[in-house]
Design brief:
The chain is mainly β. The protein contains no helices and 11 strands.
């Protein structure tokens, strides 16, 4: 299960930091992603960070957003700087999680957080 937080209202040029933490009997988390969905638009991929730490970004956020992760906390973060009105969207975290169920069996899931609203407006 993923829980996202950190959204809010910010002026153009401002910054926000989103957080997302996974809970449960986690064995390993592979790719961790951030996606976003603006009103009336399809959900779009924003950034990925792999288990080894390498990352990639959508061209629209490259140079302004930074994705990071803390494997000890099963968490992923998105530092968003130089925010623009076009960044307004609901932001979702996503992760490929390997966990154990109550029967002690391995379960692989493509998990999504509940979304956190980011609004960039003056």
């Amino acid at each position: 299960q993923l829980q996202a937080s950190g959204g809010g209202l910010v002026q153009p040029g401002g910054s926000l930091r989103l957080s997302c933490a996974a809970s449960g009997s986690i064995v390993r988390i592979d790719d961790m992603n951030w996606y976003r969905q603006a009103p009336g638009k399809q959900r779009e991929w924003v950034a990925v960070i792999r288990n080894g730490g390498s990352s990639n970004y959508a061209n629209s956020v490259k140079g302004r957003f930074t994705i990071s992760r803390d494997n000890a906390k099963n968490a992923v973060y998105l530092q968003m700087d130089s925010l623009k009105p076009d960044d307004t969207a609901v932001y979702y975290c996503n992760a490929q999680i390997l966990s154990k169920n109550v029967e002690d069996s391995y379960v692989a899931e493509n998990s999504w957080g509940q979304g956190t609203q980011v609004t960039v407006s003056s």
